[in-house]
Amino acid sequence: MSSPVVLSPDAARRLRLRAQGLVARRDLSPAEVVRRMVALQGQDLPAVLRAIAIRCRPGTTLDDVRAAFDSGELVRGWTQRGTLFATTPRDLAALLSLTGERVRRKLRKVHADEGLDDDVVRRAAAVAREALADGAVSRATLMDLWQQEGVPTQGQRGYHLIVMLALDGLLHWGPFAGTQQLMVATAGAHAVDRSGEPRGDLHRIARAYFATRGPATVDDLAWWLGLPKTPVRATVAEIPALQEVEVEGRAMLMASGAAEPDAEAAGVALVPGFDEIVLGYQDRGLVASKEAMRTVVPFTNGVFRPAVLLDGRLVGTWRRAPKKDEPPFELIDGIRARDRKAIERAIATWKHG
């Protein structure tokens, strides 16, 4: 790596916006956006569709994003930290080979408490394989089939069974029926290949992470993947195509040659809930103050609201269709009148539903 470049926080935030594809948008399709970023957090399906669309070439619609899932170019699965992510078939396999067993271990006690023993999982898998052999199925259909065969689905049991079968590489979320996403079999080229080279996958994914989320720390990457810090640090140390930068005394990494921030402020960027510009890092202090984070995550339920970014700094939350007599945003104190007007214009011209 070359000698560290010292960056101001403003410069670092602008570089993150650019790396994330939220300014100076590239001429990319939905599949190209996700392939570039490896995976985008996707437990909120409408939000991740929007997160992909706003990083695509201008004019890309939510229907275009759904079409990429319909064609099999994009998939959604529990790839890391026990959380749903939108990704590509290739990276679904790669991520599961790196993280799947670790996630399984963390879930074992929950599954034991729910009475989901090996016999239950085997029976659930057999029913799922037969159902998916005929094509895509909805969650409701799979639940009905399990109940007919005496597989317990009460409470959260059905959900946990789906997660386990997804971690085992049996199924994933794929095409759409209207706005509902269906499950399909993970088979053939999409299957989890545990005989490959996880080390090579980790190298490739680490490079992509810093190219699309940098400047960021190695600890950010380890947290994002849900992997121990020591092996991640060792892998990153072997990657030549990274540049070290320093932001307020902290060492961060990004793609080599990318540390040339734009001089001008980046303006307003609106992102949906759970967006990677907020959730893609363990330490969110560069982008958001504690006050700003409380507007986006006001409760303890882990739900992240849509965020307003001003020159890369999180300044509040927004809504496309506010209730009567309510403003379309909630901002932290100290935002200038002209910036508030720019935020209002951005919300009024939002094109993604």
Summarize the structure.
Helix content is 44%, strand content 17%. The chain has 14 helices and 12 strands. Strand 3 and strand 4 (83-87) form a beta hairpin.
Estimated radius of gyration:
21 Å
Overall spatial form: globular
Average residue pLDDT: 92
Q: Give the beta-strand count.
A: 12
Broad structural category: alpha+beta
| Secondary structure tally, helices | 14
Strand arrangement within the widest β-sheet reads 9-10-11-12
Order of helices and strands: EHHEHHEEHHHHEEHHHEEEHHEEEH
Poorly predicted parts: none
| N-to-C CA distance | 43 Å
Organism: Myceligenerans pegani
Protein name: AlkZ family DNA glycosylase
Pfam families: AlkZ-like (PF06224)
Can you lay out the helices and strands and say which pair or pack?
Layout: E1 5-7, H1 9-19, H2 30-37, E2 39-41, H3 45-53, H4 62-70, E3 75-80, E4 83-87, H5 89-113, H6 118-132, H7 139-148, H8 157-167, E5 171-177, E6 180-185, H9 198-213, H10 218-225, H11 229-237, E7 242-247, E8 250-255, E9 268-271, H12 276-279, H13 290-296, E10 307-310, E11 313-318, E12 329-331, H14 337-348
Parallel strand pairs: 1-7
Antiparallel strand pairs: 2-4, 3-4, 5-6, 7-8, 9-10, 10-11, 11-12
Helix pairs in contact: 1-9, 3-4, 5-8, 10-11
InterPro entries: AlkZ-like (IPR009351)
Protein name: AlkZ family DNA glycosylase
Pfam families: AlkZ-like
Description:
This is AlkZ family DNA glycosylase. It comes from Myceligenerans pegani. It is a single chain. 44% of the residues lie in helices and 17% in strands. By secondary structure, the protein is of the alpha+beta class. The chain folds into three domains: 5-11 and 196-255, Arc Repressor Mutant, subunit A, CATH 1.10.10; 23-190, no CATH class; 268-348, no CATH class. The strands form four sheets. The chain has a four-stranded antiparallel beta sheet, with helices on both faces. A three-stranded mixed beta sheet has the order 1-7-8.
